[in-house]
Amino acid sequence: MPISDSGWVQIGGSYTVSATETGVTLYAQLVGPTTAQSFYLDDVVITQTAPPPGGTPVATYNFSDGGLDGWTPFGSATLANAAPLVLDPAGDSLSLLVTNRTAGYMGPSLNLLSAPNLAAGATYQVTAYVLLAAPDSTNPTATLSIKTADCATSGAYSNLATSAALSSTAWTKVQGTFSFSDLPGLSTSLILYMQSSSATDSFYIGGVVISELAPAPPSPSQQDNSGISTNFEDGGLDGWSSRTGSSTLTNSTAAAHTGTHSLLTTGRVANYDGPQINVNNKMYPGSNYNISAWVLIDSNDGSNHVINMSLQTTLDGNTSYPSITPYPGITVPADGNWHQINVMGYTMANSYDPGGAYLYFQSVPSSGNDLVSFYINDFQLTHVAPPTTQTDIPSIYKTFADFFPVGAEIDSTDLSGPHAQLLTMHFNSITSGNDMKWGSVEATEGVYTYATADTEVGEAVCNGMRIRGHNLVWATGAQTPAYATGDGTNSAANQALVTANIQEHIQSEVQHFGSQVYAWDVVNEPLDPSQPDCLDHGPFYQVLGKSYIDIALQAARQYAPAGTKLFINDHSTTDPNRLACLVSVVRDLRSRGIPLDGVGHEMHNAINYPTVESMVHAIDTMHENFPELEQQVTELDVSVYNAGDTVSNYGNNIPPSVLAEQGWLYKHYFEAFRRLSGKLSAVTFWGMADDDTWLDGFPVTRTDYPLPFDMNLQAKPAYWGIVDPTHLPGYGLKFEITGDTGNAHARVVTLTATNGDVGPAYATQITSFSLKQIFGRPCSPVVTPPSAFPVLLGDIAASATASTSFTIDFAGCDPFAHFILKAPWTSSVYHTGTFTWELDANKDRDDHDHGGHDHANR
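Request: output the structure for the sequence above.
Response:
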């Protein structure tokens, strides 16, 4: 790089250190005819662009100073600095000798919080070498483990890695990875310790190295959040490549969603062989993204193809393939049209090595191979800035503190940042959406994975929240591993096996969570009104008949802590047949002494179904029949689509009128829940905000808006309907008579609606118009509306008015006849009232005697 004395010039480059180098000297020199000149050098920065294999060492313990290097006994073991009979692989002459062990867990330990530069969210590798102090023919092993303490627990244990058989003549390596979190609160201790399958063997450890494999994700302000946009209009591939190198990617003008170009992938050799693009330093762990692309199948034969958008991430040699679209993907018909694959608010969860993250498209057939060629176009990867929560609005759970706790279904993405702030501000109970289900905690028989659920429970414990357990046995077999029901037959042997499986699974899970969980959905969705016995004939029923319910409830009562509430939980209990089945099944259980403490009503509702009255009826019916049982609304949400509608999709453009309608409906829900508070012990939403709802994938893939907070975690009309309806659009709408003209044979009454100042009163209408005579000789006036009912006034802006006129023929009526006029009205469907006015058949008498108009609204 040419330099001069007139200004600074930046120089630089990259260098990879080899494993054999013992020292590296960086120097600057002048090259050319003026090499003898003096020069200045400033602002030298050395930046690591990729960690070395095995990571960047952050702490090394070789015990060369004759001390213990901060290690302490775990249990009553004794630690000493000693020279082993065999030098460790690094040639160190000293090591840590562990003696006086009387149990397998006893050994050396290190508080990792004392190690330099360890950060929450980073991924670390720990390597250690172990040498037995004396031969042991039982071939013991060593295990690296971690004990974590925080505000939720005094000790959570996890194993990192177990070695091969140990030897007294050669060192054995044990190596594992770990990361730690500041959730649910900062760790008060993070103890790395080594245990052995032998309870008494003494052993040496040496050459302990802790290395950083991946740093903690940078804060959003330090990320490259520019995203990726490719439309292929430049004639190139825009950074896309073949996953296998065998398929062919072509910039094509044969089809385009917009413009004239697109990307065509042909010659695919596997389902996973599709176009890919590097998203290194474009997608960061913990950040959210909107991802969209348009896909066209390269045929027009009417066949359907499932196209999946996924990630491939590699960290220290381990590769993962998380799906971006809800698995298996989006059904794209070969109909000659472009179809959008759109994922809103995807949370990047995987760390990766530098350059080790790709986004790709693949096909996912139900079986076999689908090697169809397809186009993609108008791909957009957009970073979603972290939302901020509102801190100046009422708390939902505090609003209902005198009635019942209010909970939310959560997953691990709700435990940090704005989602955690929203959770702890508005809810005082949680339900884990998926992480306590059989398939999540015991996917392999006898192998339990509680880490994610433990973190969710910890968040609740640290914030004084109640915890509902969901669920222990799912009647339909959903999210349940196949081994749970054995070979599926009702043979005596398989019945015994499945009974044992249920009992063992329930015992392990309820004892693991103990008294932290106050209530369990022991059996989920057991009802089927189409069956004579009202029960779903799923895989557990096929083996055990209805006794599987007995077995599950009895096991939960036997193993759960005293006082734990045991529930059965089901959906659509507002349906008369299903409600009758619920009564029948509960009555049968109670009559046989099967333990049961409560019934959960899921309440996954649509904006037009069920009615509030049917919800109240379901809870009243169960209370009348079983007053001793608790009842809870366990999975509340309100789809903005009508029941049975699988075609509509508002996408990203939900009409404000629909949100207002939903808000007024939520108002009626919670007014009813208040009235039922003596019969209703809790209400739980199935989620918190519209950015994370199961309804985006059920019953079809589309964008839904069922919860109190919007995509940006802001309060929407649904929230205000729950806590304070005076903020709902159209609040304050009132009616009055603003005109009364004509004569007894053609009296024209003008009815005017005046909106409040909160927001539009959507779809305002008068549903009927009636006169009831209360005085005078009976007569039958004729009312003529301006149109067929309902009479539409439309959307009325804030503080605006809308009017309509009715003609009344009082011919044949006594002038002294007195009437009550009633005009029921609606706005936003669920905002309702009735305008009432008293009048005489003789308008002049009415005006003179009554001194104006008497009207009322509600």
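The first strand starts at residue 56 and ends at 61.
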